[in-house]
Design a protein that fits this description.
72% of the residues lie in helices and 0% in strands. The chain contains seven helices and no strands. The longest helix has 29 residues.
Length: 127
């Protein structure tokens, strides 16, 4: 005889959804903290660069706050990455270094790009 999974009450389903969202917020907060630390930024420095309050940065990193799209945009400016990179690296749960390098180079002039290319070639001894 096949066993059926127990039915969840509406309260239990709501609690499971809340637990899932809480975990997601905490995971995103950990991701923001790792990105901030990899740039050797304090919460205060990131707040200033992002035009956000230090309290907002702390709450995001703790997973106690669900940032709006506007806040996420400011956060990406402060971390010097695109929104795409912010979420792509979060989804992968690892830093996507190539995307971050592309974001860094995106705002550079043609002469700066040529210089960066020559430096990379010299670093890896490519003709």
């Amino acid at each position: 005889m096949a066993r059926c999974a127990p039915k969840l009450s509406a309260a239990n389903m709501g609690k499971n959804r809340l637990t899932t969202w809480t975990k997601l917020h905490r995971r995103f907060g950990d991701h923001v903290r790792r990105m901030r630390n990899s740039r050797a930024l304090t919460q205060e420095a990131l707040a200033e660069r992002s035009d956000l309050s230090v309290d907002a940065i702390r709450r995001i990193e703790r997973g106690a706050f669900s940032p709006s799209l506007d806040t996420l945009g400011k956060l990406s400016v402060g971390l010097d990455v695109s929104l795409k990179t912010l979420f792509h690296s979060f989804d992968l749960e690892r830093s996507d270094g190539v995307a971050e390098i592309c974001d860094f180079l995106a705002g550079r002039s043609g002469s700066e790009l040529k210089l960066a290319w020559r430096v990379l070639q010299a670093m890896f001894d490519e003709p």
